[in-house]
Design brief:
single chain; 275 residues; alpha/beta; Rossmann fold; eight-stranded mixed beta sheet; 9 helices; 8 strands; 15% strand; globular; AB_hydrolase_fold; TEII; Putative type II thioesterase
């Protein structure tokens, strides 16, 4: 895939040519690369963030939406290959966790193993529940969005913006609700899970189920907040992701605008396990 195509899929607001590792981030359903805009200021100079822009979202609005997660992961894998001249890690929230997992599987098949994958706000692949939100009428989809609280009310009150939100949200619900991973699908990369303590979409058991999705062991973290806690307070999330890239107690290296080392993350470790 061309460099131009890679830049279409993976957005890097702050290139760091001397960076030692690349962090590939996959947004939640209905989201865009802008979900990670605040992260750049919280990262040290040796971590370069590339955030995925899904087809049919944000400035890719005129492109067809992808209706199959396997197809999306195929394309994301191809787009990511030129970025793998350095060690890399993956982070995905909600639908993004499944997209990151399936992309990581494809990258591993090509010989590229991530330093770590962080799966946030999503049950383990083999525990994903089928759903019917994507089959409901507009009112049903809007009710689900309102329940999770991921869309500002003023956006939903604007007719044109509401139509855009409904279009992408319905398509992304379809991706998650029709997803089925292949039997025996596991990663060789270690996995960390993130769960908001008030998240109605993810139980502790469902987060712990990620231990069956890797042969390299798992860490399970909990945070204050609901399903969208990473947006409400990205600081502890970023701090924990950085810990996963370097190991406990080891500095991330370089300097950062946000100076996260001066603030203690509010995440707690619930369990640590190896398959």
């Amino acid at each position: 895939m061309s460099t131009e195509a890679t830049a279409t899929w993976f957005r890097c607001l702050r290139p760091r040519p001397a960076g030692r590792i690349r962090l590939l981030c996959f947004p939640h359903g209905g989201g865009s690369s802008a979900a990670f805009r605040q992260w750049h200021a919280l990262l040290p100079d040796d971590v370069e963030l590339h955030a995925v822009e899904y087809p049919g979202h944000a400035d890719r609005l005129l492109e067809p939406l992808v209706d199959d997660l396997a197809r999306l992961a195929d394309r994301a894998c191809e787009a990511a290959l030129p970025l793998l001249d350095r060690p890399f890690a993956l982070y995905g929230h909600s639908l993004g966790a499944l997209a990151a997992f399936e992309t990581a599987r494809r990258l591993e098949a090509r010989g590229h193993i991530a330093v770590r994958m962080t799966a946030s706000g999503m049950p383990a692949p083999h525990m994903v529940r089928p759903g019917t939100v994507h089959l409901g009428d507009d009112r049903a989809v809007l009710a689900e969005l309102d329940r999770l609280g991921g869309v500002p009310p003023e956006v939903l009150e604007h007719p044109d913006l509401r139509e855009l939100v409904l279009r992408t949200a319905r398509a992304d619900y379809r991706l998650a609700e029709t997803y089925r991973t292949a039997p025996g699908s596991v990663l060789r990369a270690p996995v960390t899970t993130h769960r908001g303590l008030q998240d109605p979409e993810l139980t502790g058991a469902e987060a712990a189920g990620w231990r069956l999705a890797t042969t390299a062991g798992t860490l399970h973290r909990t945070f204050p907040g609901d399903h969208f806690h990473p947006a409400a307070d990205p600081y502890p999330v970023v701090a924990d992701v950085l810990t996963g890239l370097t190991g406990p107690g080891e500095p991330a290296g370089g300097s950062t605008t946000g100076q996260p080392a001066e603030r203690s993350p509010t995440a707690s470790v619930s369990t640590a396990s190896a398959r």
